[in-house]
């Protein structure tokens, strides 16, 4: 689980992707990102969302299907999350199923969890 807070930039998101998901011990895990505490999103362009989706798909564990839940109660975070989800679905190499939710409870249910561990 990762949480965003304050202002989140595309550099922050790319750093998270490359730092966390390059570690072999997390390969194939389900993922939860909670954007509830984010006050501002500073993404340079929607093209960066497509680039992030392509990078993420390339980093997926090819032999393992996993889930990625994004909690995004704010409209801008929700919209960007849905855009990311669509780009991931269009990439044939992705093995991670992405869903975007407004509420944490719904994201936990999607991941098969009743509460956070």
Side by side, the strands of the main sheet go 1-2-3-4
- Based on CA atoms alone, the radius of gyration comes out at 13 Å
Provide the succession of SSEs. EHEHEHEH
Number of discrete helical segments: 4
Task: Give an overview of the whole structure.
- Helix 1 (10-20) runs parallel beside helix 2 (46-59).
- The N and C termini lie close together (10 Å).
- The protein is globular.
- It has a four-stranded parallel beta sheet.
- Helix 2 (46-59) links the parallel strand 2 (31-42) and strand 3 (66-71).
- The relative contact order is 0.19.
- It is 41% helix and 27% strand.
- The protein has one domain (2-110): 2-Layer Sandwich (Transcription Regulator spoIIAA), CATH 3.30.750.
- It has 117 residues and is α/β, with parallel strands linked by helices.
- It is built from four helices and four strands; from the N terminus they run βαβαβαβα.
- The model has no long low-confidence stretch (mean pLDDT 94).
Write a short abstract of this structure.
This protein has helices at 10-20, 46-59, 75-90, 104-110, and strands at residues 2-9, 31-42, 66-71, 96-101. The N and C termini lie close together (10 Å).
